Amino acid sequence: MPGTTQNCRGFSLIEVMIAMTIGLVIIVALLGMLAASWTGASSNRRTSEIEFDGRYALATIQNDLRQAGFRGNSWAEPIAPTTTITPITGECLSSGATAGSFVSNLRQGIWGSNDSNPFSGVGNCIPAGNYLRGDILVIRKVDSIPVSTLAANTLYFRSTYNAGEIFRGIPSTACASPISTYAAPFNNVPCLAGTPRSGLDDFALQNFVYYIGPSTDDATLPALWRATLQTNGSVTSDLIANGIEHFQVQYGRSTTDLNTRYYNANSIDGSSVDTAATEWDDVSSVRIWILARSSTVEPGYTNTNTYNMGDVSYVVNDGFRRNLRSALIHLRN
User: Fold this and answer.
1) Which residues of 98-117 are buried (b: 16+ CB within 10 A; e: fewer)?
2) What distance in Å separates the CA atoms of residue 285 and residue 1, rounded to the nearest whole number?
3) Which three-class secondary structure state does DSSP give residue 49?
4) Of 127, 133, 135, 192, which residue is most buried, by most CB within 10 angstroms?
5) How far apart are CA 109 and CA 113, in angstroms?
6) 324 Cβ contact partners less than 8 Å away, ≥ 6 residues apart
């Protein structure tokens, strides 16, 4: 209105500073909440990672162990191959073993090595640089489903109710053909006791060797590997699960008082290439431990735990999250 004086003024410097201070406090609080949320999410991701890796590794080994020693239609002692199995590329041979002796030893469904690698020789399945630590577990069996057509170079087990024999596949299922009919490396298809029998089935031979080695994704990351007999007669390793840092196995044998006692592999008599009966034939159950580790360290976290696995006490002092899993598996065969 004319003649009226209006009082107009802005914020004082003190009011502005107070508002800025309050705003900064709110921003800092929000940033703190965001950082805590991010840290928690990262920790949850690491926990999920090691739980998944450990669970998957354990399940894979369990599935193979339950079928260890499976011989198709027969429970009988396998017959020695009619002819020598020709050398296998990358076969898992211990020092001084005869070529072909590892893959042909189906009678020994399970075997192990205690915190050492016996297969590090030239051309063998686990070169020294591919093994980090822990036990090595060998599982031998045949596939659960018989085949109708034989493939060249593939190792099979011909099985009937009272006999079985390993041979290398040829383009014919006739068991009367002499080996001289075919060029190397084909082996004679067994007739089993000399005459064809009814109820014969052919099963693909399977050899698995589990061990801990460096990951191909990151050489600083440990992983669970499985050396596997391939259809072309070679042995190659496949990465099963990243982040598996340690692997321990103990083997259960019945005592005279009908209890089960568990042994480390080096306490059981018999090498990996024995074709005669050994104490390994008495193993009826297996105890395994799998230690999974996160792929990255967690800022602000220190792991000083001791992980007890069979005969090993594994002490750590770093920033990696870990998860220890164990299982007891009863062998079916």
Assistant:
1) eebbbbbbbbbbbbbbbbeb
2) 101
3) helix
4) 135
5) 14
6) 54, 289, 290, 291, 292, 307, 309
Per-domain boundaries in the chain: 69-248+255-280
155-160 vs 110-113, strand pairing mode: unpaired
Can you give the pLDDT at residue 41?
58
Closest CA to 237 of 259, 215, 269, 220: 215
- What is the full DSSP assignment across 200-234? -EEEEEEEEEEEEEE-SS-TTSEEEEEEEE-TTS-
User: For the CA atoms of 330, 201, 207, 123, what is the dihedral angle to 10 degrees?
Assistant: 160
For the entire predicted model, the pTM comes to 0.82
SS3 319: coil
Pair 327, 287: CB distance under 8 Å: yes
Residues 6+ apart with CB under 8 A from 30: none
Q: In this predicted model, what pLDDT tens digit does every residue of 207-250 receive, in sequence order?
A: 999 999 999 988 899 999 999 998 777 899 999 999 999 999 99
Peptide bond into 185 cis (omega under 30): yes
Longest alpha-carbon distance in the chain: 131
Top pLDDT among 70 and 96 is at 70
Mean pLDDT of the chain: 83
Structure tokens, 322: 């870990």
The Cα 295–Cα 265 span in angstroms is 30
Contacts 24+ apart (CB under 8 A), 149-155: 149/173, 150/189, 150/202, 151/231, 152/186, 153/185, 153/231, 153/232, 153/233, 154/204, 154/231, 154/232, 154/233, 155/85, 155/103, 155/204, 155/205, 155/229, 155/233
The answer to whether 283 touches 260, Cβ cutoff 8 Å, is no
